[in-house]
Amino acid sequence: MGVDAERVKKVIEEGRAVVGIELGSTRIKTVLIDDNYVPVATGSYDWENKLENHIWTYSLEDIWEGLKGSYQDMARGVKEKYGTGIRKLGGIGFSAMMHGYMAFDETGSLLVPFRTWRNTITGQAAGELTELFQYNVPQRWSIAHLYQAILNGESHVKDVRYFTTLSGYIHWQLTGRKVLGIGDASGMFPINIGAKDFDEGMVQKFDELVKEKGYPWKLRQIMPEVLTAGEDAGVLTEEGAKLLDPSGELEAGITVCPPEGDAGTGMIATNSVAERTGNVSAGTSVFAMIVLEKELSRVHTEIDMVTTPNGSLVAMAHANNCTSDLNAWVSLFREYSEAMGIKADMNQIFSVLYNKALEGDADCGGLLSYGYYSGENIIPIDEGRPLFVRTPDSRFNLSNFMRTHLYAALGALKIGMDILVKEEKIQIDKILGHGGLFKTPGVGQRIMAAAMQAPVSVMETAGEGGAWGIAVLAAYAVKKAGNESLESYLDYKVFAGKEGMKMEPDAKDIEGFEKFIETFKKGLSVEQEAISKL
């Protein structure tokens, strides 16, 4: 056992290590970090949502099996690697997929199966609440689920005594506290940024809206208490410790930070919680989150409004499609290579084709692509038809072809970001990029910088993602000195010296992308026609 392992063993045995657990849509991940925020052990558990009675859900059994399974996987790794068990921890935190609907009666029993963010069954409710609040309420939000259940006349609504998100449910069961981190809370119901709490005016509007139903509750009575990062959110109870670690090794009394959503932990993992900063995640889907200096001037149904874990306002542009079509074309080139008897690995093919794109015309030479496998919110299509279009006089070559698909992968995101940058005049000082689009050094980063019209940095690693992000929040809840702000804590303690590779946008790329997006918008009727006819 080397020096480092000995040091880590000591940190664990002295109860200074911190655990973060995040329940993602396909994997539950546990990360143990040392006192330098370095991941020293990880565990995971794979799970899948099920479609039952037209509702995407996970059962309570799935949730607890997964949570325990992921924690035990990490604990086993600690025993193997460091020869010790975990009795005490410096802190622990739980995060999960945002939004959705978990409603409980007065005995704490779940009234209807958990309705996840993935369900699009609340269109009427989301539309009516957006109109009532003059604030965008997406279908995923918890309040949209509650109001849709009311519109549907569902009998369980009168019995609701508490409703929350997945992270809020787990935290409640492990600590006894009905609280929620403000970032996750901002996906339940609109937040008043000044008050760092649910918007009281909108709460009253909702109560007035449903008054005639005669329910025995007011909205505030059935919602969690909102907390910002670092606030007291309780400790692990005896029952909670046994739920998480049935072996009985883990002791009660451990500080638990406010539970958060996966958007918030992503902001932590990329150090993008300060105003005028943001992060963009680009893989199968793509979303950008920008921390704002002030409220937007009006409602934009294309833009989701959420908050950072310390309660700053965030605008999110989210597109369902990003790299799927791009990857499909790259796979076609791999098939061609194999048919020609050329052995090339996928990383090499990606690298060659992506770099070829940088040789193309800044405006893609008149080529056009729509890489839509599914519908979008930012642009008006409810299904997808991947489509490649060119005119007889366009400059059809490999570099323009690849550049077109890279631009198109960011087409919907670019339209959403243009609302923020051009209409709302928001300022962006830096963006941190993460996800598969950035794997080939310098290419996705350069295209993204042109789309965002802002410098984009890529770190060698964004830690272990959201599970690492919630572990850092748990450490902040324990270690913050006095009134130390979350921004300062991340800058000077967690991310000190980790700037990543920064790339400024190129003026020609910006101009070319602007030309491309104008053609892209004009051609959307072609995509809509393909949907109606094919």
Automatic annotation (TrEMBL):
GO molecular function, one term: ribulokinase activity
Keyword line: Kinase, Transferase
Domain of life of the organism encoding this protein: Bacteria
InterPro entries: ATPase_NBD, FGGY_C, FGGY_Carb_Kinase, FGGY_N
UniProt EC number: 2.7.1.16
EC class: transferase
Protein family membership: Belongs to the FGGY kinase family.
Protein name as catalogued: Ribulokinase
Species, as recorded: Clostridium scindens (strain ATCC 35704 / DSM 5676 / VPI 13733 / 19)
